[in-house]
Amino acid sequence: MIERTLLMVKPDATGRGLAGEIVGRLEKGGFKLVAIRSLTLTRSEAESFYGVHRERPFFGDLVEYITSGMVVPMVLEKENAILDLREFIGATNPAEARKGSIRSDMGTDIQHNAVHSSDGPDTARREISFFFTERELVQVV
Ligand code: CMP
Fold it and tell me: Which residue ranges make up each domain of the chain?
């Protein structure tokens, strides 16, 4: 099934000028770019985006970090996009990520792990609409 999912380049990667290389890797990997933007999240936007982690001990640090610089969210489309993207970017902790994956090559530690991706269909829907309007998601082909 053709799916859409959300990938967000995080401040550690945008700060090192890696956003373009990440988009290139994704496109070469068969993910079609549907929409993309850049912004710096406010604290309340970050708390809402990562709301599912509110009770976790790392939540405060996560919000602090994700608001510390520019993020580049994008919508990607392909067959089985949600699971395939998670495999493509590698495990959350770069030290455990598959060699050659984005997180293995570009991440530093579990917090500074270069990119975020949606973990399932409901999350993908929620995260896509968090950043993009319906109009931005229309493609005429
Ligand atoms: P992400 O896929 O963006 O989803 C939540 C983020 O919390 C995760 O990537 C990590 O970057 C971050 N995080 C920080 N500490 C931890 C931790 N101990 N376990 C899981 N995620 C963590």
Answer: 2-136
